[in-house]
Amino acid sequence: MAEQQESIISRAAIAGHPLHPMMIHFPVAALLGLVATDFAYFWTTDPFWARASLWLAGVGAVGGWIASIAGLIDLLTVQRIRQKISAWCHAIIAVMMLSLASLNWMLRYRHGEEGFEMWAFYLSLFTAGLIAIAAYLGGRLVYEHAVGVDVD
User: Fold this and answer.
1) 18 beta partners
2) Segment 55-79, tens digit of pLDDT
3) The organism sits in which domain of life (predicted)?
4) Deepest of 17, 34, 71, 144, by most Cβ within 10 A of its Cβ?
5) CA-based angle 62:68:74, to the nearest 5?
6) d(CA 77, CA 132)
7) Which residues are CB-contacts of 122 (< 8 A; sequence separation ≥ 6)?
């Protein structure tokens, strides 16, 4: 029988509920939806999809940075989290992903639908790939290391 692991309590929490895992779902959904709206724009050339992509890129980037604050608080203030290689890898991948998402949004905002080229779709795809890696590492923190999980 597997040994039960002691939970690692989140410091960025409300009533014992960790904020980072609660806050990250909406930005992730926006950035993954961005791939679909980019594809729809290339398929139809309807400006609606370029506008939808702009909004999804912005919501994903800004929401992701806000959610990352809660994760950063836990990383920097909880020693047992700092000791996990998965936590550092998750943080580094997330910063890379959010940097790309922010660049994607900034370029879309500056150039509008006139400047909407294949780079936008490639940035969206690369960002989605980094989301998958960060999500896997975040899952390891929860399910293997019991970060933010009450196992009592």
Assistant:
1) 13
2) 999 999 999 999 999 999 999 999 9
3) Bacteria
4) 34
5) 160
6) 26
7) none
